[in-house]
Amino acid sequence: MRKLYFFFAISSATTFFISKNIIAQTKPITLNPQNPHYFLYKGKPTILITSGEHYGAVLNLDFDYITYLDELKSNGLNLTRTFSGAYAEPMGAFNIAKNTLAPAEGKFICPWMRSDQPGYTNGGNKFDLTKWDENYFIRLKSFISAAQQRGVIVEFSLFCPFYEEAQWKLSPMNVINNINNVGNVDRNNVYTLDKNGGLLSIQDVMVRKIVNELKDFDNVIYEICNEPYFGGVTKDWQRHIADVITSTEKDFSSKHLITQNIANNFEKIIDPNPEVSVFNFHYASPPVTVAMNYDLNKVIGDNETGFRGTSDSTYRREGWEFILAGGGLYNNLDYSFTADNEKGGFVYPSTQPGGGSAALRKQLSYLKNFISQFDFVQMQPDSTSASDVSSQKARVHVLSEKGKQYAVYIFGGEQTNLSLTLPAGTYQTEWSNTLTEKIEKQETLQSNGEKITITSPNYKEDIALRIVRIKK
User: Fold this and answer.
1) Which residues does residue 466 pair with via DSSP β-bridges, in sequence order?
2) Secondary structure of 173-212 in the HEC alphabet?
3) Which one of 127, 258, 265, 279 has the minimum C-beta count within 10 Å?
4) How many helices and strands (H and E) does the chain possess?
5) Any residues with CB less than 8 A from the CB of 419 and at least 6 apart, and which?
6) Domain 382-471 has CATH 2.60.40.1180
7) What span, in angstroms and rounded, lies between the C-alpha atoms of 44 and 33?
8) Distances in whole angstroms, Cα of residue 57 to Cα of each of 107, 326, 371
9) Residue 126: helix, strand or coil by DSSP?
10) pLDDT over threshold 50, residue 462
């Protein structure tokens, strides 16, 4: 009953907001013209940092997204990622406990309307791919509106490959789940231009519908396809979908950013699509992932973490290293969010493919606060200004505007002697605890332009250093 009441309450609220023009028709989040490695949102330089649920907030009717978004806001996190509903997962897929992308029977919603014919694989009637489910779009716009009110950007992933037959058997595009006699193809041919069994036109119309429905939201960016390097997704098809988004928006007063998922780990991007503004990686290896593609002058993102255990420190370190390598988007995949624990307190088993916790969300908020102290659009990756000279050889990452401001992250050991090369001047230094945000040490530093060594306070695992010039 609580879920049913929640759905109707949100539907009514959305209608009210739209009727009162609460959704401001402002310019959507865009690349920062001063430094396109970052974003500009509501006139402010922006880096997107979050620890978000597993992309089922809209398509899973059991998921209370208001509680979820409130949790992100409470930590100052400003990004979430969600799937359209063209793809869903069976329970137990990838060893994920209480997977939000795996709705219970009868709890799945997607852009297409149910028909009057029974037989959908996960319960209920089959889909009619020529008609829209208006309840879906009410829920979608309510979700994005709620995110907008909380300062959260939504990366909307339009499609996802079908890794196994189990996922393909759940898709409305599969011929067994629709009444339109389309999609009688192998799962590896769904996202092609020539072997899709009539699905390309269905996909095009869905994209245009979504883009038109969301045109007035300033907090949406569109991802073409999650992990298109699996499941037979072709590059020509990806370019085609990007063209559909662009052509749909050609007469819009404001255009939305398009993101493309490039690879797991890292890859040098060759022949980038000029319509794409954000190039995303999964399980990134900073600083290599960013450094290989920094010359593209676009945002480089790490929009899914995981498969490195469940320890908070693993994903805290990945976030700090990625952002201080020059990345502009970091999304930890947080498995503590479930459809019965939207506040993110689920204690998952050790077999989970990734991590996430209330503690990690708080630690990532410290990263966001730390980088926000800087005029970061003036900064770039810096491999020469600082290095560890201690016996443990800690990993040191620096983002700087040389001679003015330096953001330093150190991972490893319990104390570090840091060699600095700074232009002559007077600097204020401030050591921050990445686990508590406590300022552990402050001092004024005088540089004559030659190498100097400073000593960190003791720390556990990692520590951050802020250096700002105060006098010439």
Assistant:
1) 407, 430
2) CCHHHECCCCCCCCHHHCCCCCCCCCHHHHHHHHHHHHHH
3) 265
4) 9, 22
5) 386, 387, 388, 389, 451, 452, 453
6) yes
7) 11
8) 12, 29, 28
9) strand
10) yes
At 22, list the tokens.
């609460």
Scanning the structure block, which residue is given the tokens 């020529």?
130
CA distances from 147 to 29, 142, 353, 375 (A): 13, 9, 27, 26
pTM value > 0.90: yes
DSSP-derived pairing of the beta strands 258-264 and 278-282: parallel
Rounded-to-integer distance, Cα 175 and Cα 433, Å: 55
Q: What is the mean pLDDT of the chain?
A: 94
Rounded CA gap, 212 and 292, in Å?
A: 35
State CA 220 to chain mean position distance.
Answer: 11
Token pair in block for residue 457: 């306070």
Cα(285)–Cα(265) distance, integer angstroms:
6
| Residue in the structure block whose two tokens are 């995981």 | 306
Pairing of strands 258-264, 329-333: unpaired
Residue 15 is predicted with a pLDDT of 43
Q: What does the DSSP assignment read for 50-115? A: EEE--S-TTTBTT--HHHHHHHHHHTT--EEEEE-SS----TTGGG-TT-TTSPPTT-B--SEEEE
Note the CATH architecture for domain 2-377: Alpha-Beta Barrel (3.20)
End-to-end CA distance of the chain: 66
pLDDT above 90 (res 36): yes
Q: What is the pLDDT of residues 228-260, one digit of tens each?
A: 999 999 999 999 999 999 999 999 999 999 999
Q: How many whole angstroms separate alpha carbon 277 and alpha carbon 79? A: 16
Q: How many residues does the chain have?
A: 472
Domain positions in the chain are: 2-377, 382-471
Whether omega before 272 lies within 30 degrees of 0, making that bond cis, reads: no
Residues facing 331 on adjacent strands: 50
Q: What is the DSSP letter of 253?
A: S
**pLDDT greater than 60 at residue 18:** no
Percent of the chain with pLDDT over 70: 95
Torsion of CA 410, 412, 418, 420, to 10 degrees: -40
Spatial separation of the C-alpha atoms in residues 304 and 283, rounded to whole Å:
6
Side chain identity, residue 397? H
